[in-house]
Design a protein that fits this description.
Blueprint: E1 2-4, E2 7-9, E3 13-24, E4 27-38, E5 41-45, H1 52-60, E6 64-71, E7 74-75, H2 81-88, E8 89-92, H3 104-109, H4 117-123, H5 125-129, H6 140-152, E9 158-162, H7 170-185, E10 189-194, H8 197-203, E11 206-211, E12 214-220
Helix pairs in contact: 6-7, 7-8
Length: about 230
């Protein structure tokens, strides 16, 4: 990797975060985060309150930060949120944040063009059958499918998912995991935040462990499988 005129140049680095600090109401939540995401899936692991969601918000420009963020070698830490999203960053947030009174298809079309609908329905065939169903009448697992499909509608280069398995039955978690793996195999980089390390390890090739706003361990997933159980809800 080389630097040129303030840019970080790397053919394989999609996202790079350098010495990132994030703040809420003057309190420091993230302390000197350094991480990279290439053309791969990377997991952020850690307990509740570790700062995982804040990390996603910081990358998107939704909280006050210090440090540097690069996307395909270009600095984006000075850009507004919508400008970062326009570069090719999509987020599937915790809690889904769908439009409950709209249909599945209307939720998807609010995020992208009609020509991407087939890709979304191919990823989740059940949504094709439910395309006219009001989202609020769907199960939590089905709503999570809509949320992931909606993010895919944005034609992202990087997809960030915040706790996609929360509250879902094991069989649904398996379906969600397989779908995220397919997205990864499409060539879309994935940054997944999870407490379910079994799901995370089925998708990601590398992981970072975040505890109390700091990265305490990182590496290939096989190198951190022995991480202390008290970090997670197993």
């Amino acid at each position: 990797m080389v630097e040129l005129h303030g840019k970080t140049e790397s053919r394989n680095t999609v996202l790079e975060v350098r010495n990132l600090r994030a703040y809420y109401d003057g309190s420091e939540i993230l302390r000197g985060i350094n991480l990279k995401v290439g053309k791969e899936a990377v997991a952020i692991l850690g307990p509740n309150g570790a700062g995982k969601t804040t990390l996603i918000k910081a990358i998107c420009g939704l909280v006050k930060t210090r440090g540097e963020i690069y996307f395909f070698g270009e600095p984006i830490h000075g850009l507004k949120t919508h400008e970062r999203i326009r570069r090719g960053i999509a987020v599937c947030p915790e809690g889904r944040r769908l439009f409950p009174n709209l249909s599945v298809e209307d939720n998807l079309l609010l995020a992208g063009d009609e020509d991407r609908l087939e890709l979304a329905y191919d990823l989740f065939p059940k949504l094709r059958d439910r395309r006219n169903q009001t989202v609020k009448t769907m199960s939590g697992g089905e709503q999570q499918m809509v949320a992931i499909a909606r993010a895919l509608m944005q034609n992202p280069k990087l997809l960030m998912l915040d706790e996609p398995s929360t509250g879902l039955a094991p069989i649904v978690v398996k379906t969600i995991g397989e779908a995220i793996a397919r997205i990864r195999d499409m060539g879309i980089s994935v940054l997944i935040i999870e407490q379910n390390i079994h799901l995370a390890f089925s998708i990601a090739s590398r992981a970072y462990v975040l505890v109390k706003g700091e990265i305490v361990k990182s590496g290939k997933v096989e190198e951190i499988r022995d991480i202390e159980k008290h970090y997670f809800e197993l």
